[in-house]
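In practice, a research group might receive sequence data for several interacting partners and want a quick structural hypothesis before committing to experiments. The following worked case mirrors that situation: the sequences arrive first, and a predicted assembly follows.
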Amino acid sequence: MKLRLAIPVATAALALAALAFVVPAMAADTPDPVADAKAFQKYFTDKFPKLKPQDFVNGPYSMNEDLHKQWEEKEEFPPYEFALEAGKEMFATPFKNGKSYGDCFPDKGIGIRQNYPYFDEKEGKVVTLELALNRCREANGETPLSYVRDEMASLTAYMAFTSRGKPMNITIPNDPRALAAYENGKRYFYTRRGQLNFSCASCHVQSPGERIRAEILAPALGILNAMPIYRSEWSGMGTTSRRFVTCNSQTRAVPLEPQSDEYRDLEYYLSYVSNGLPISGPGARP
Amino acid sequence: MSMRTSSVRNIVTAAVLLLAGAAPAFAASETDFKAAYVAAEAAEKEAGQLRNRWTTAEAALKAAQKAAEAKNFDAGIAAAKEAEALAKASIFQATSEKERWKDMEIH
Amino acid sequence: MASTIRVRAISNGDTTEVQALIQHPMDSGFIKDAQGQTIPPHFIQQLIFEHDGKKVFVADWGPAVSKDPYVKFAFKGGKKGDDLKISWADNKGASDSTTAKIA
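A structural hypothesis for the assembly, expressed as tokens:
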């Protein structure tokens, strides 16, 4: 398959570009996303040698035998079906001005989820899929959707579904701002926060497969590939924004605004280091 | 705190005069509370600028305000001091994590 | 409007295996909304599966069942092509039903 070749080629190209970009006077701490991603994936595949790389996108279901059986049953009749159907309908319904979501995206918005988030060089910032959807709405005279509620989740569920199986494909252009955003996301991921003093890594790097209270923790590798998710705990769908917000409050940190810079950069980093793993969204979780 | 009737104002004056000479063991005043609250608020504001506020600091601050509204300044000061301590801890966390995050990084 | 009932019924020898996913808020009446107001109870009280004029599965539900309930069961009988009728009624007097073919 073309993509299989493209990844090592792209990796080589990125590596060369990164080398070319490095100014000799720079400190040893020059970001090297390619090396990061490699180390990140190796860490998890070493930790769970029985798993295939694509298994990681199922999060806790790949961490526990009993949960895996529950997941297999769930997949026969997934709880996100209603949201998915609603999302398909929403996506096809034109705005009041006659235009539709497809007009805002490449390929009419079908089969493109794996390219998000991307770094927008004009704006100099990371653009996530949720952000792009709301910008599309606003550009066409519609009110933006809440980032943490059902409608946004339905839309991203549909778009993820059209990309199912496609490998995550985040690019970092040869732009110091893009590298800075990537680094910012990485820093956020590893920084302890909240009164409980947890970083994202505390749970998802140090303790995947282990329990926090009654939950089995998911590995960070591929953790966004299944988004958005129907979470039984929420009795409903949740977007990436919703998950970031709740993770923050669960560590007793006051959450930031959905789609704030830190969250966008975090999504950028987490998606990039999971490059190559298939999109499995929409997903279901306990 | 505005007390319109003169009889209530007389009582308050008397109380204030009594308290003015009181030992620290007596009930705290609104002034003491305000000082404690302002300090807590300032610390929490700094934590906010660092984008690292804790939910428990916010809750303590709100509890302090609520206690003060019920004229329970002792409880108000205790809550304000807790809020300040939590806020300061969150500032310490944000500052030290600027470097320490690297300890957790996968290499 | 789309049906609230998704059903899959598969004939397996002399048994039919049925799975159904029903869209319903299943509000218990104990939860408060963001404004602090109690969300009134709104839940399915009875769920019935019928095959060949006979009730093969009857559920009497209450507020303990979660939102968008999922049901899975098997019954003796039923063959490919048969009709399976599913209907529910809730405490507000609303109802829905659908008929599916056993596969």
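Before designing any experiment, note the following. Chain B has one domain: 24-104. The radius of gyration of chain B is 19 Å.
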